[in-house]
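ASSEMBLY PREDICTION REQUEST
Request ID: AP-0331
Submitted by: J.K., bench scientist
Number of chains: two
Total residues: 426
Priority: normal
Notes: Please return the full assembly, not individual chains.
Input sequences:
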Amino acid sequence: MDKFLELMSEALERDTGTVKGEDLFREYPEWDSLAHLTVISLIDEEYGMVIPRDEFGKMQTLAEVYQYITSNSQQ
Amino acid sequence: MSYLKYERVGILGMAAAVPKNVYHNLTDNEYFNPEDARAIVEKTGIVERRVASTDICASDLCAAAAERLLSNIKADKQEIDVLIFISQTPDYRTPGSGIILQDRLGLPKSCAAYDINLGCSGFIYGLSLSFGLAKQDGVRKVLLLNGETRSKAYSFKDRKTGFLFADAGSACLISKGKDFGESHFLLESFGSMHEYIMIKAGGSRYPSSLETIKEKTYPDGSIRTDEKGVMDGNAVFEFAITEVPRQVRQMLKVTKRDMESIDHVVLHQANAFMNSHLIKKMKVPPEKAPVSLDRFGNTSSVSIPLTMVTELQAELRKPKSLMLTGFGVGLSVATALLDTPGLTISDLEEI
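STATUS: Completed
Returned structure:
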């Protein structure tokens, strides 16, 4: 989870430590369409997975995103 | 999955044409401040684009490319039995531009000529069809033309699309020949996603009206009429990074090849963010994937032949294995794997 949050802080251009699992990421001032694109892109690079858009749309917190990745990754 | 395989048919030569007029994304768009423009250009990688004046159509760019090609390889126009014009910006709603080009290029009446409506995957679709037709005993040569004035299809005041699209035309002559190696094509359609890239109004479903030519302002500040293109960039990105690597893997599998045996991977020039991601994901060394979008933008179905002309002219004189992949409007994805003998590639034409 720490590695994932570090990746998300990179994607969102926020300081590490200011990005927490329980955060409602869409409320970050940095969240916009480009940030969304970067998040999807980095998750694909790191975990080899493109989260389907209707699934991603339902996710509120970064913990939920991480949860989805771990339960759907092929390893 | 549609899979086509040919032998002893291939490309004799290629040419491309662009408008002379250069549009500088960092400085020429008066609707966005310089910081916004810089941020968009950084992501898209498109610094310059060729934008046609109002009196230049896609067919004009194709005619220029075709004239250059046919004189360059000294082709006998009487031998061209089929002309295919692929575009989403034809001259008129009726008749098609392909049939007008038959006359304009001085091709005989015995030449079949028609239009096909396809976008970013259109060059591969066109090649696959041209190869099939050229294999016929009754067809000697096929002239494949891809032309677009995409810059006119989108609003320059649109944050999502106002910096991407550009204009170009290409010509490609196809014929039988014993020197041509195997060629393979994979063609797929995703029609459920047709709204992701769309020009809704001005056709038969939503005809032009006073309402459709009104400029509207959207929540992100973008301004456009309903007769300009819209694109859900994030949805298309997610689609492309899923389906393109999958189709390319499938091509390698059906042909029992590996990426190392491919000399050049020519991707549709969508934008730098998407293309860099695709190249990394498909483990293609960057030097194998030529880039023209920084100077020529996204020219839809012309981007693959344009990149071959501007970036690979010298390389393609020698025999090469090429992987070509187009993806976009439809949505639609198509990949070709070609083993080409030396090709004649004309110098870029500017009109």
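REVIEWER COMMENTS: Chain A touches chain B through ten residues (CB under 8 Å).
SIGN-OFF: pending second reviewer
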